[in-house]
């Protein structure tokens, strides 16, 4: 199976065993991912031993602004890749491109050797690549469970209606509901299943977003600032959930600003600035890198959102989702925060 750790790297079924025994026995996939990357040079665009995602010559401009210009980027299978860079570096735009939420000016990218260009988000999701949003897309007037059922068909507005109309795909409905309830238990949201998503805290919405992404059984999960705006009491649990994805053999790309978190969680770190990848390497290589230090100097760092900003951002996200329901293309989930648009 493409999303599993490669068999030759899996000593005596360690991966399967770690799943059976649960989080107390975490660690084998992490060690395997780090071992696989140990001899990879710390160079931009460097080949990985077993890439799940390969990006080539992808550019995206908005007017005169080059938001993304990535010559080559390979993402190692089964590891957690931390994607960092100052605000406006192009991280969210890159996620949008790789998952079909936006189209590039040039370039190609593939998952397991299969080109993903020109596919819609739900098609990309069905092939096993999903993302979550920096601004969560939970629909506040749907219940937590209903939000989960939207994830079952991949990330597409239309499926939303099908998910709510009984009988249109009854055979799948029961299985999907069971899967949703199981994921809600895992993310400790089961007690909230019948509540409107709008009543959840910011952190719970992030958990719901992650749980929903898992409804389509992805092999690659891209998490856009899953910790942003999350109450510190929930950050450890969120981090644990991200590490669990790796334990289950998924490939994770993770945008995060807090360098302690990045160091703790990443097997490999990719640094973007002004649309380009300016450095990549294991976490310990990054703070010594002069290009990285320069990129961050004078860059404006993200501060946590205020409650008013969070409300504004959610209202904007819902407006965009409403548009999506009507089949319009959404350029980006980045809004507000004065990113110069
Ligand atoms: N839909 C859009 N229209 C115009 N400019 C955009 C759009 N989306 C992103 N940008 C610009 O592209 C650049 C990269 O943004 P983004 O990918 O959101 O960066 P990051 O996620 O690293 O903070 C920024 O300058 C941003 O203002
Ligand atoms: Mg972003």
UniProtKB/TrEMBL annotation:
The keyword Nucleotide-binding applies. Residues 1-29, 320-341 are annotated as: Disordered. Gene3D superfamilies: P-loop containing nucleotide triphosphate hydrolases. This is Branched-chain amino acid transport system ATP-binding protein. InterPro entries: AAA+_ATPase, ABC_AA/LPS_Transport, ABC_transporter-like_ATP-bd, ABC_transporter-like_CS, BCA_ABC_TP_C, P-loop_NTPase. Keywords: ATP-binding, Nucleotide-binding, Transport. One of its GO terms (molecular function) is ATP binding. It comes from Geodermatophilus dictyosporus. Residues 53-299 form the ABC transporter domain. GO terms for cellular component: plasma membrane. The lineage of its organism: Bacteria, Bacillati, Actinomycetota, Actinomycetes, Geodermatophilales.
